[in-house]
Amino acid sequence: MQEELNVWLEWLRTHPELQTLVASAALIFAAWLANWVVKRILVRGLYKALRHARETELQDYGIIRRLSNIVPALVLSVGVNAVPGLPEAAVTVVRNVCGGFIVLTIALAIGALLDIVNLLYQRRADAHVHPIKGYVQVVKIVLYAIATILIIATLIDRSPLILLSGLGAMAAVLMLIFQDTILSLVASVQISSNDIIRVGDWIEMPQLNADGDVIDIALHTVKVQNWDKTISNIPTKRFISDSFKNWRGMQESGGRRIKRSLYLDQQSVHFLGSDECERLHRFNLLDDYLTDKRREIDEWNAKLEKRGKEPVNTRRITNIGSFRAYVERYLRSHSGIHQSMTLMVRQLSPTADGLPLEIYCFTNTVAWTQYEAIQSDIFDHLLAILPEFGLRVFQHPSGADMRDGYGSVSQLLSRSKPEWSEQSKHSEDRKLEG
User: Fold this and answer.
1) Per-state percent for the chain, helix, strand, coil, to nearest 5
2) Percent of the chain with pLDDT over 90
3) CA-based end-to-end distance of the chain
4) pTM (2 decimals)?
């Protein structure tokens, strides 16, 4: 057997072209075999071990599979020197291409590894406070830039320093090309260091029609899911240059503000008579207030001596003051109002649309639907209870008001029409007699 092999090899030496072809085929087969062994045996076995250890990220991102491609490239790069009769230029090309492929594979594997690092970091409880996705993207950009330089240097068989030396003259061009990237990097650093926004924050940026939750913070853009379920992609640098509202403080405080006014008809404001005061004593929330207020006013009026006999010189209880006291006590007893935060009921300056009575308080929840339900429940009650105090809500005349007014005038005219007709008849008779 050994003798036959020697004879066959000797015969190949007498045919150099065929020897080169057979050696090249053997090298390609060796590279394919190495690739098959690594991926079918080593990689699959390693994947099973990782799956057993619940480390599926390495499999999902294909780091091991990418690194396994280095083995056939190394076989070709090393074995090409053993192929007899192969031109030097061909050997150089094969080695350079394999070297560039190895650099590219390593760069892609490191990029996938950085993605895994970001994924593992996002599992931390405080990951939304200081996201690192922007920094990971910067590292990947630098990595791919270095890899590109190394690949080009490997393919042209030159030192990478020669390519790097030319970057000094291209600095201005690179600054212009990567202007947005540099600005976004600076903005990302400021956003992270100053804790300006986090994933999950509710932000409002009217100039860009963005109003919703932050769902992703990247190097160049910040994704905001608006309340209508649309997605706004906002440049990261805009969060440094433009103003916006972050509702995180409200969400962390545990209370959401109610700041709304009831516009009262100023002509319905009046002093309360004794009968009206007695009727308001029916309200449990006002009983103590009216008693204390009556005692205070009586003591005040008693000091006026003779002038106190005139009602214009005395202090009296008003319906709007009683209503304001009722609203405040109603809010104090409401289960949906945060009692440790600011709570007040105040009058604002009168306007042409009525007298604003502002309710300023905070709910004990920040959930949007519950907040709106509490706010609506409060104003439903206040609007319905207003007539008990002799107050009216101010509103501009509507079409129904116009129709009612026109109907009243028409009825009045129709009732007086016979009398007008009789007067007109007598006037006509006097004219004929004259």
Assistant:
1) 65, 10, 25
2) 32
3) 160
4) 0.58
